[in-house]
Amino acid sequence: MADEVTHSADKKVWTFVNKPHTAIAHTGGSLDFKIGGKFSGSSPPTATAILKNFGDDGFTVPPVPNTDGTKYNYDEVLEKSILFYDAQRSGKLPADNPIPWRADSALNDQGTNGEDLTGGWYDAGDNVKFGFPMAATTTLLGWSLLEYADAYRASGQLGEMFDCIRWPLEWLLKCHTGENELYVQVGDGGKDHGSWTRPEDMGSDRPAFKITASKPGSDVAAEYAAAMTVGSLVFKDKDPAFSAKLLTHAKQLYTFAKTYTGKYSDSVNAAAAYYRSSEFEDELTWGGAWLHRATGEASYLADAEKHYETGAAWGTSWDEKNAGNMILLYNMTKKDIYKQDLEATFTDWLPGGTGTAALPYSPKGLAFRLQWGSLRYTSNMAFMALLTAELGIHPMEYRKWAKSQIGYALGDTGRSFVVGFGVNPPTQPHHRGSSCPMIPAPCSWDQQQQKGPNPHTLYGALVGGPDQNDKYTDVRTDYVSNEVACDYNAGFQGAVAGLKSLHVRHILDR
Fold first, then answer.
1. Where in the sequence numbering do the catalytic residues fall?
2. What pLDDT is stored for residue 509 in this prediction?
3. Which PANTHER family does the protein's record reference (predicted)?
4. Residue with the larger pLDDT of the pair 36 and 150
């Protein structure tokens, strides 16, 4: 049961591939096939067959020496986390693409008037490009490079990190097609989630969605502005022209966000079922604070403080920026209100909190905010804790806590939650591309249901994580625990870079 893929001009060499419903064979089983044909002459032709396993790509990452002698090799984690983002790339891949099982995809992504919207990252285990979480991810990753460039340099990943964040920044720029026009999504989530296939094999029906003056989205416009502003700071010396372009677009987008207010998910129904925004004020503070840091202009600081929401932060995510706002604004103004709010936030998050908002802890020590992406929330806050410590606020306490939460993700419970890293890592992340065999073998729901490891190791991806009782099952169909996403790795990678930086500076040696 197979389909012809190619044959030579003389018809003596043929390539066949299994049909989808017969495409999976497990070790220890048997594989039977026959080929029929007609021939002329008195004796049949002879032939040989070569069988190729499309479920094994042979791709491995060479070992990385642990030169720091730390419990976990932060250099290896940083390298592999960046590789995860490489695996999420959409569009025309560069000649030095390090992921051999990925190829060009979605080359016809365009806006309603034919604007080029190729590039960017696929959001998670699906093949949609969601602009809001992509921009939020880019902002956090850029922040980690701003604050902890020494970590990336010492780990040998500085060049790779510049390439990593430039990829989404280029796409964000493409999305800003008019002064008050911004594309925020490419692909229909409903249709995409109704199929299971690699991005290289997607159909051409990829609608694009945008915000305008009449259909505003202050949150996503301000988040794009924040990402571009961080990008302008990151590339200020490396690529001044690119930096200036990013800052120009950031200023325009922030003005758009302030002038035409509203939540983007009220304007773009296609995003509401997946990344519904709770409010936009925190993004207005976020974008204004970053623009003030980049420009020094007082008006941006005034905007940021005007929209600031007092009180402890719920957490940090693609939707909530309050903790980051506190860090930025305290660093800029040294006002007690921001320090007090930071301390109140970490009183809730660290063990022993007694308030109504204090987080529960799992038996093995995970600060548990929500089930869906549990490790994402604690990793994001570990990054915030390390940044807060840099301001001289409870540095030892916050650094120790951040290290404990990242340690949980890397293996303190006896298993790693990072694909391709450490002891007993996940092997079945809920991720279409890595679950599909090598091209041109077919991919369908059969691959989603198959019981073995994914054919491709999705190096560096942080899975959603365990429940409040530390229960976790490595199974592809459990998208709550085993989904991966760009935003899952953002604060996590930032925290790992922060811990690496502490070793580089001899602040935290073990």
1. 430, 474, 483
2. 58
3. ENDO-1,4-BETA-GLUCANASE (PTHR22298)
4. 150
